């Protein structure tokens, strides 16, 4: 039965809190229909601080989203729902959702532009073009001037050099013995984006239009229709019912073509229209070759059509049936750009950001024989840079990287991946943009967190004010030189380093020692923690933290952190200097005795050890020349289990360092 609501699975939510720490109010317009009385409800206050999985689960329960709303069955293969801002930006934390307030929950997991009404014009932010709704059932947009005439020319020329007969993927149950020519008479060429920078650019132009990552697209298919040539009515997605031979390839229907961006590369004098015979709920036509009824769109050079073959909930949309009417005069050049609801790289099966999400509490069908990959890793990439970073997966055997999404400042993105996989972080959406960082997924941990450090100092100044420097001036931290990729490569920091004056030289001379005052840091057993920073050379230090929480409630644990550093000015604070940390080749960044710590601590230390750049970005150090202190604090959540608060390490000497002796019979040694 056809669903009455053709935007099923697209829910518009408004979330807010009336009081800080109060419950989260939710108002929801469901299934793309604007009701006079929207659904109203609230979620308990703790939901606001919940991890992403629990947060999603509470929304899912509230809205009664379940897998069974999907027509394909095999629910374990169904893609999880996605949450988006109204401009199509994917949201990835409770914080982000609550900050955004107006969000779209899309059950099919990929962004879906709401059509609103026929004739509705939506300016695409950051571009000069508009999405014009030409049909709401199916959802079809036209974007005029999306391609420049000279780009159309170039594409046609590339296509022309590679033409062959247009194939169709025959429905194995229906059309196995039929001649392709009965359905489609055009000629076609597939073009790999790698062969042309224009195509690479178009991948991103389109991804920006659809808000679906580039990794989801098929190679563009250039089409040429000569006089009388046509394509009978069909849908672009694959219904598993009709594609038994390819059913695994399409995850039994859950991996499917989501949308088509159809390029018109020429005008056509007569005929050659794209026809939607079921537009506005018209019934299934009897004659798939008829061009009589339905919505007809005339080819117009440089314009594109965007239509969805799946509904927002991931089911197929029978109204997306479409055809190319025969060309009556002239020639028609056009192209299919198909975008799938899941990434196209099948072997590695790298699903979407939220693929690992649990639907929870659903039918047993969902768990029967789920092919859950064994050694997969969920990697969370947190962006602490002041600018958006672009995440790419670098396949081992190919030069072409797969764009997986963008991470806004302060946002994070979770990916399913595998040990040994390489991830690239770039400054832009294409592969020619600056490579900021390379991260390999390591063995052993199922959950890995990577924080892309930066010069953005986040909440740090406040922490300093409150806990260490009460009464002193608020610190103005600076953002030095934009993006600074944490790097494993040795070398000086990128922002300009100032020559040291004599005061500074004295502060960081080899052998200079700094220690926190006795009883300023504590472990769980209430033993005082000692932190000693020792300058090794004028550009390297070693920080030893001892009396850490250890096995069986003890305090034997110690950690040594080694880093290179450069000294930087802080505007208007002549006596304060920022120490920028960096790796030094052949120096072991982290040392500790595993046998001293509990499993959880070892786990965290293991992570820190493997991605030492995290540590470089996680600590914030400042030199106070007046007070002879190094102020040291965490600036990444990752560090907080070890280093909760900001402490001042005071200049000291070997002889006057304090040592805590946990043995009660022996006296504490202080100067
Ligand atoms: O040429 C057209 O207008 C539509 C072609 C089409 O739908 C296809 O090739 O899948
Ligand atoms: Fe088509």
Automatic annotation (TrEMBL):
PROSITE patterns: FE2OG_OXY. Residues 216-341 form the Fe2OG dioxygenase domain. One of its GO terms (molecular function) is procollagen-proline 4-dioxygenase activity. Pfam families: 2OG-FeII_Oxy_3, VHL. Its cofactor is L-ascorbate. InterPro entries: Oxoglu/Fe-dep_dioxygenase_dom, P4HA-like, Pro_4_hyd_alph, Pro_4_hyd_alph_FE2OG_OXY, VHL_beta_dom, VHL_beta_dom_sf, VHL_sf. This is P4H4 protein. The lineage of its organism: Eukaryota, Sar, Alveolata, Dinophyceae, Suessiales. The gene is P4H4.
